Amino acid sequence: MHKTKRFIISGTLLGIISGICLNKMAHQIYQRQPNQILNRVKTAFLATGSIEGSWIETKKLTSKKYPLTTTVYYGGITRYEHQQLVQYEFIADAKTGSVLDLFRL
Fold first, then answer.
1. Residue 64 β-bridge partners
2. Which of 15, 28, 35, 87 sees the fewest Cβ atoms within 10 Å?
3. Could you tell me the sign of the dihedral formed by the alpha carbons of 15, 19, 22, 24, in that order?
4. Whether the model pTM is above 0.90
5. Burial classification of residue 42, based on how many CB atoms lie within 10 Å of its CB (0-12 exposed, 13-18 middle, 19 or more buried)
6. Of 14-18, 54-58, 101-105, which gets the smallest average pLDDT?
7. Is 43 exposed, middle or buried (0-12, 13-18, 19+ CB in 10 A)?
8. Residues sharing a CB contact under 8 Å with residue 5, sequence separation 6 or more, in sequence order
9. In a 10 Å sphere around its CB, with 0-12 CB exposed, 13-18 middle and 19+ buried, how is residue 63 labelled?
């Protein structure tokens, strides 16, 4: 084989391998971490009062609603409202960090 062909083949393989590695790294970096999501939700709640407690599951779960399947985190906030302890739970998209649902228990 000529040196030029070897150089082109090795460069192409190196480019493909680098692309695969960078793609995997980008997915890990751009996935929202559970604590980042929880902090965002807590900040929104703190704007209207204090928080007694909060939690988020660190394990991603699959949520299926009608034909859509999404990877999500579940979490919750506890606070006092009118001298009564009130709990809220939320569902957040694991990729974007967006709160998909929030409900009072």
1. 69
2. 28
3. negative
4. no
5. middle
6. 14-18
7. exposed
8. none
9. middle
Among positive and negative, which fits the CA dihedral 54, 100, 80, 83? negative
Give the torsion through C-alpha atoms of 12, 15, 21, 24, to 10 deg: -100
Per residue in 9-55, pLDDT tens?
A: 776 777 777 777 677 666 555 556 899 999 999 999 999 989 999 99
Vertex 59, ends 53 and 63: CA angle to 5°? Answer: 100
Whose CA is closest to 72, among 29, 31, 23, 40?
A: 31
* Pairwise CA distance, residues 34 & 31, whole Å: 9
Cα–Cα distance, 2 to 6 (Å, whole number):
6
